[in-house]
Amino acid sequence: MRIRFVTASTLSCALITCGLRAQSGVKITLDQAIQMALRHNHTLLAARTTVQQSHAQEITANLRPNPTAFVNWAYLPLYKPEEGYLSYLHDATEGDMGVSYTIERGNKRFHRVQAAKDATDVARSQVADNERTVTSQVATLFINAQLADSTIEFARQNLKSFQNTVSIGESQFKGGAISENDYLKIKLQLLQFETDDQQARLAKVQSLSDLRQQLGYESVPADYDVIGSFEYNPKILTLAELQEAALRNRPDLRAAQQSVNAAISQYSLAKANGKQDFSLSTNYAHTAGVNAMTFGWSIPLPIFDRNQGEIARSNYAITQAREQETATRGQVMTDVKDAYEALLTADKIARFYTTGYLDISQKNRDISEYAYGRGATSLLDFLDAERSYRATQLSYRQAVAAYLQALEQVRLSAGVRSMP
Fold first, then answer.
1. Is residue 80 part of a domain?
2. Running DSSP on this structure, what letter comes out for residue 219?
3. If DSSP codes are grouped into helix, strand and coil, which group holds residue 236?
4. Secondary structure element (H or E) that encloses residue 67, with its range
5. What is the CATH number of the domain that holds 359?
């Protein structure tokens, strides 16, 4: 049932992907983007083969030694013997055939298989860590595209609104209500809105292009787009919960812990390889008309080579692996701490805007526009209010993006998508 479910899920995803390729102008959500990247990112697909390669090495480790067969026939004549071939072959030649087999000592095959399995576990965790990194990269690029999209929408609305101001200024200039210099100042302000629009469009094109590479270049059409909420929604998280989640779920920490087991397995294998294997052999011999059987037993004498160097090296490797595990554990805690503090800072900055500054900039602009239209304020005051409004709105969108990216960094550091 599990195999059927996995197969059905894979088939469903393949059908969705084919549908996306066939459609034009499709829009994908963040969850869809992550799932597509996990299935089609070529860097991940290449990394997953390391697990398959390690499985193949398990097969190699489990193999037994091959038996050796040998045959020889000695003293064959170069010329026809006087007594004839048959008599000469029976009485004067020597023939041998036999088989030998090496018996492994020290339970070597078991230790080889265990070392290979431990290496597979490490490879599997390393691939999971690659998936974690790719997921974070996809989310970051997705948020960048959303930021660009939001900036484009704001620039479009602001440009349309300010174009009305330019039209009013042009009418006032033609009617003699304002000077040419004031009218030109208004037109110059329009340049900034047009520049914002073009820069945002470029940022979105580049973000979508980079995101497409992460998704698998051929998995989405060229004119695809992203869709989803781009809003500031504060979350209540605690550092202790995040650190606990990271210690449970971070695949790089799990790989470091499994590397200790792998190092211990290599040490056990090195000690097993220090045991000398012996060989058993038997052969049938026909010599000068006599038939005989021979049995043999041989073993190297461990006088010089007892695999001392590899045993010592693998023992030091255990210490190395344990130190690396400790360093990785500390790095995990540091990553969570840094990401959590960055999230708190991003949250505070976003709150500055939502708790008053957005409303203040909007009211300041509306009042200045109303007063300028009735001659109650100067052009410079109106343009300054317009610039402040534009800068505040753009900064707020960047603050939202920074908060969402900080949240993704927290997910990356904790090793989970769903927050505790």
1. no
2. G
3. coil
4. none
5. 1.20.1600.10
pLDDT tens digits for 36-86? 999 999 999 999 999 999 999 999 999 999 999 999 999 888 888 888 888
The alpha carbon of residue 315 and the mean position of all alpha carbons in its chain are separated, in whole angstroms, by: 31
Closest CA to 106 of 282, 261, 321, 311: 311
| Cβ(185)–Cβ(379) below 8 Å | yes
DSSP characters over 170-205: HHHHHTTSS-HHHHHHHHHHHHHHHHHHHHHHHHHH
Would 289 be classed as within a structural domain?
A: no
6-22 residues labelled b (16+ CB within 10 A) or e (exposed): eeeeeeebeeebeebee
**CA–CA separation, 44 and 278 (whole Å):** 45
Counted domains in the chain? 1
- Helix (H, G, I), strand (E, B), or coil: what is residue 297? strand
Q: Measuring CA to CA, which residue among 140, 138, 141 is closest to residue 36?
A: 138
Pairing of strands 94-103, 225-226: unpaired
The residues near 147 (Cβ < 8 Å, ≥ 6 apart) are 203, 230, 397, 398, 400, 401
Judge whether 315 lies within some domain: no
* Long-range pairs for 47-53: beta carbons < 8 A, 24 or more residues apart: 47/126, 47/127, 47/130, 48/127, 50/123, 50/126, 50/127, 51/120, 51/123, 51/124, 51/127, 53/123
> Half-sphere exposure of 185 toward its Cβ, with a 13 Å CA cutoff?
14
Neighbouring C-beta atoms of residue 76, cutoff 10 Å:
12
Inside any domain, residue 126: yes
* Distances in whole angstroms, Cα of residue 298 to Cα of each of 68, 108, 227, 279, 284: 14, 18, 74, 5, 18
269-289 residue pLDDT tens? 999 999 999 999 999 998 888
Residue 378, helix vs strand vs coil: coil
CA distances from 64 to 52, 104, 113, 274, 282 (A): 21, 9, 11, 18, 19
Residues shown for the chain: 420
Q: For residue range 381-394, what is the model confidence (pLDDT) as tens digits? A: 777 887 888 889 88
